[in-house]
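step=encode ok
step=design start
structure_in=
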């Protein structure tokens, strides 16, 4: 009987209990983690390093940034104030009673202009800007042949204190291409 007890004590149970402390000693020591889940950090950081070290990816990122900048450049240059289309100009005139100011020369104005447009040449605009509207919150729509002179006039009108200044994008040329009416010598065309 005594031999049976020795066998039980020295059996598989005894070997397992002695082997556990050895396994604990073999584990690597626990270090303080930088991230909550190390597996995510181990996956993302090497992936990002390899992604950004690949020159093709860097070229593609540069192309995206440059093309985005080129698309935004016109609106940045104008200060975020783009021109309005012919349809938007019609809505401004009909719904919000916008004042239409044509800044072209007198002979160009006589060839054709928007209905209810006031003629003020660009050279005279600085002196006559106070006569455009009594209420400076009324929308002002500036028109020229192509839209270039109207952008210069918009700066003058904004500096005079008008809150809402719009430029007809493409000028009278875009207005006519859209099929909108043009008044010529007092007769609508």
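sequence_out=
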């Amino acid at each position: 009987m005594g031999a049976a007890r020795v066998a039980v004590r020295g059996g598989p149970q005894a070997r397992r209990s002695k082997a556990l402390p050895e396994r604990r000693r073999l584990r690597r020591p626990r270090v303080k983690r930088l991230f909550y889940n190390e597996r995510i950090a181990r996956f993302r950081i090497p992936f990002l390093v390899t992604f950004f070290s690949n020159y093709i990816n860097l070229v593609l990122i540069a192309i995206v940034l440059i093309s985005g900048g080129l698309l935004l450049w016109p609106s940045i240059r104008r200060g975020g104030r783009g021109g309005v289309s012919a349809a938007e100009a019609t809505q401004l005139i009909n719904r919000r009673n916008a004042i239409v100011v044509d800044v072209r020369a007198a002979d160009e104005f006589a060839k054709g202009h928007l209905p209810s447009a006031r003629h003020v040449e660009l050279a005279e605009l600085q002196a006559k800007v106070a006569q455009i509207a009594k209420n400076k919150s009324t929308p002002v729509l500036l028109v020229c042949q192509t839209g270039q002179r109207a952008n210069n006039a918009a700066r003058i009108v904004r500096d005079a204190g008008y809150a809402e200044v719009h430029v007809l994008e493409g000028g009278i040329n875009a207005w006519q291409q859209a099929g909108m009416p043009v008044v010529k010598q007092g007769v609508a065309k």
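step=design ok
step=annotate ok -> The chain has a mean pLDDT of 80.
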